[in-house]
Prior knowledge:
5 helices; 6 strands; globular; alpha+beta; four-stranded mixed β-sheet
Amino acid sequence: MNVCVYVLVVGLTCLVAAIPQRPSSTAPVVAVEGAQVEVIDQVESFLDNAHYLNNEEIGQLFTRLSKDYPKLAQPYVIGNTIQGRPMHALALNAPPPEGSSGDLLRPMVKLVANIQGDEALGRQIVLYMAEYLASRYETDDQVQRILNTTEIHFLPSSNPDGFAVAKVSHQQ
């Protein structure tokens, strides 16, 4: 019971703290003594454009997180559903300190959502939490403490087939 409350509190804290910042209309330019760097591909954050993601978009989000935060995020697929949809998962954890091979006793937490197809809110909370933790690692001491001491696995949809059916039936 205490673990469930803790996970809920951490999830809600991430949601409350994720105040969206609108991306600028032009790519930022940074000048450093004779060198100029321009961000070419600025992808809008999932937190800025909240909507229910379909299964393909979840895979794209996890792939983007692994490209944006390669030392923190590792996407993987745990298998396929009966209808052939991949079950996307994401592991988040900080790399071990230099000179160490990692902590074998680091606790692991698995957050699973969308067990029933129409439970879309839990699915979104898991996705928000994954992006929030990955994007805030460099700047937030609490997020650093969480990811430095815990390995978190996210499975936002354990029933992608049910979600697809529920989404279609609610549109009719």
